[in-house]
Amino acid sequence: MKERTLIAAGAINMFIAVGCGAFGAHGLKRMISEEMLAIWHTAVTYQVMHALGMIAIALLMPRMAGAAMRWAGNLMLAGIVVFSGSLYLLALTGTRILGAITPLGGAAFLAAWLLVAWAACRREV
């Protein structure tokens, strides 16, 4: 993803996360169990962290250009969709099988952060 696209995707994900956080705090409180509300909160937290991560990657790309940073941004977006998306659906539907795909999103997050570290270590000053 290009820098501008990554910033836009990060900002849109922040918008969604803020909306989901507010919905969880006000709208879902009476509709789902405490356990499911905690799962919802985890989805929001990870979406926020990684949306900000996407924006940070975009801002670092001019200094650390390369495939590693592009892959890191793409993996963060994929991680948000899979990790947070599966947790949102789990909280809303109670379908436990969705929890089985959540670790794939977590693995995408881990790979993205490793790629950022790799790009930083390879950068010549």
From TrEMBL:
Q: Report if keyword Glycosyltransferase is assigned.
A: no
In Swiss-Prot or TrEMBL terms, this protein is called: Membrane protein
PANTHER family according to UniProt: TRANSMEMBRANE PROTEIN 256
Q: Where in the cell is it found?
A: Membrane
UniProt topology in membrane? Multi-pass membrane protein
> Which key words tag this protein in UniProt?
Membrane, Transmembrane, Transmembrane helix
Determine if Cell wall biogenesis/degradation is one of this entry's keywords: no
Q: Which family does it belong to?
A: Belongs to the UPF0382 family.
Annotated GO CC locations: plasma membrane
> What organism does the record attribute this protein to?
Herbaspirillum frisingense GSF30
InterPro entries for this protein: DUF423
Q: Which residues cross the membrane?
A: 7-26, 38-60, 72-91, 97-121
Q: Which domain of life is it from?
A: Bacteria
